[in-house]
Structures are given as C-alpha cells and as structure tokens.
Amino acid sequence: MRQNLRNIFLVARGEYVRWLMNPRMIMVLVLVILIREQIIVPMMQAAAEMEQPLNGVESCIAAANSGLILLLLPLVYLVLTSSFPTVDGNILFYIKRMGRGNWIVGEMLFQIFAALTYCVVFIIVTMAQTIRVSYFANGWSIPVTDYDKVLAEAASVRMDLIVPPNLYFQMPPYKAFLLSYVLLFLFLMLCSMFFLTGCLYSKKLIFFLLLVVQIVLGGALYTIEHTGMWFFPVSHAILRTHYRSYFRKYVFSPWLSIAIFAALILVLAVISYRRAKKVNVDMIGGNLLT
Which of 53, 200, 201, 263 gives the lowest tally of CB atoms within 10 Å of its CB? Predict the structure, then answer.
C-alpha cells in the first residue's frame, strides 16, 4: 500500500493532541521549578553581584548540560509518552482505515512533534526567566566566564558547576546552544523510537525498564567520569562530556554522537515499519502496565 501523506498527518496530529492533553503534563511544572532552583536563581544571583548581564542562551545551555536535569528530562519524557501509541477499542478499524504503513509512519512523525515540542518548551521557559537581565550576541557573558575568579572565595555560587568552562573555552554560545539541543532532541527521539519498537514486539514494560536503566547507569558513570559512559546513549546527549577542559581536542566528537543517534533512530524506524506490517494489532500496547 502506498503511503498517504494525509493519513500520516492525521495519525500524527491525533496522537499529538492527545499527548498535549495528557494530565501527566503537570510533571513538566516540577522540572521547571527544579531548573529554576538549580540553574536560574544562581545565575541571576551571579549577574546581580557582578552587575553584568547574562547571555540570553546561557541558561538554556546550563540546563542542557546539567547532570541532574539531563537525568530527569528524559525520564519525565518517557513517562509522558509511555501511553503511546494510543490503543482503544477502535484501534483495529482505525489502523485498517489509515493503512498499517501510514499508521506507523504517523506514529513516528508524532514522536518528532513531541520531542521537538518538549525541547522548545524548556528552551522558552528557561530563557524567559533570565531575559530581563540578558543580551543576545554570540559571546559569553562576564558572569559566566569571570564570576568565579573575580569574586573567588567571596563567591556565593559556583558558576563553573553551572556552565562548564570546557564549553566557553571551546566554542561560542550559539554553537553550544545548538549542539546541546540537537543532541537532546536526538536522544529523546532514540528513546521514543526504542519504546515504540518495544510496543510492537509486545515488550513495552521491558523496553521501558531498559531505557530507565541505561539513563540511570549512564548518568552514574558520567558523574564519576568513567569511560564506560560512552556505551550508554545518555552520555552522548550531554555536550559537556565531549570536550576537554582547555585543549581543543575532543574526548568524543559530538558530530560522531549525532551520527550514532541518527543511525540508531533510522535502524529502529526500519525495524518498526517492517514489524508494523505483520504485527497482531491486539498485541500492540499503549498502556505500560498491561
């Protein structure tokens, strides 16, 4: 059966609307509060003490490179998407009407919409909280680069723990911002595609637990800077792990991480598409606990 763009879009739109209306979205508010306490408040305090503005994208870079935030962001995203693909009493008729190929491609398109929305929302919410004391230019701010050494022992926060020096020594902020969120978006896509594959093989709970385990273990290895972290996709999603502190030499190329993410997503997309052609619809699960 040939692909029908209209049917693909209808599937993606329906899932996207249901996702936006998901009551679990309240969990996003918890993350926003955590980002404010861990990132925004300390950065605003440093800017006030130095009487200098921040760069508008620095808070977003800090959030995307925080070990704690990067541990919770994908976990919350997994919970928000764990009830998809949607399965109800009309699923057999719905898939038959749309076409199996159109349905699975629509589900993949929905994953793109969801992951992109998730990243954009956090960018906007994070940036909005510092915008009144920010400027927009492709240069790092004085509070980020000089706060720790200027105030030294009188410093009330540790800026190097919020915005890692290996980023502002290695690249301008716009590049750091773009790479940080490309990596995050691709990692979320990889997680959702992996979970979608698990749903099609009727192993959704096992695949969900595997995702949680790799995020937690990868985050732990990243915290202790163990080289084994590179075997876990979550470590590839954190831009700061790719660069040395001072030397312009990769620990692991971010471009290679992007290529790995893209290749894995493509492989999972092919597997899911082929599986959707012959899977028993009754075995497709949207409820994680069934």
Answer: 263
